[in-house]
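Practice problem: predict the structure.
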Amino acid sequence: MTEPSFSFGVVADVQYCDCPPTEVRFYRKSIDKLTECLTTLNQQDLAFTLDVGDLIERDYASFDIILQEYQQASARIYRTLGNHDYSVAPKLLADVPARVGLNASGYYSFIHQGWRFIVLNGTEVSTYAHAPGTEAHQRAESLLTQLQKENRPQAQPWNAGISNQQIRWLEQQLKEARRANQRVIVMGHYPLYPEDPHNLWNAEEVITALEQSGNVVAYFNGHNHAGNYGRKKDIHYLNFKGMVDTPDKNTFAVIHIHPNHLEVQGFGREASRELSFD
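Answer:
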């Protein structure tokens, strides 16, 4: 097999807090799992690592502990926001993006070796990222109520959506990538496809934008800790498994970029697979 042009890591749903486990989630264990993960990733020649959200389970102080552990990473970390990252006191909600190193909008892009990586903020329109009584909170409640009336499977309060402004920004990013002849990987916390109760509230709008661009190879996400995979109109939708689940089995991945496929090297519970593209 040919050597990849570059490689990067992917980590999903670390979801740390110093709190007792549930039947399936072992929050304190996430520190040891992240240590093991970073030790392995540091042994690879990585351009960067993508963290697809939910650094913490709850409590703003949890950021201090998990972000300190992340300082052991040799490669740069790119992050997106997850719903549990906002499980903090209302007065601290506005501080969350900056605490994890993001701008206020929470969405951005970067380019590496002719590939454009677009990072979405799926928490933008939500009932948890904005304090009750604010206009943004009320808009999110109205949208959730409407989706529930339509019996949409993703009409759940732990999900969220993205604004029209962010959709327009995404479309512009895709146009710029097409003009520059760049292939694209998009990242977000919420799944888009296949249909699932964990999906982004307005997943269909995002899918339409991705499909119309003609240059998107894959969309990567977390949130659904069980993981998932689907392919639709030549776009791979890969939902990485959540690190916080299980008491002792880890999960993370390294993606190797080849001329005609992405090689997903899974570790622990994450499956290895090959994602082809033209």
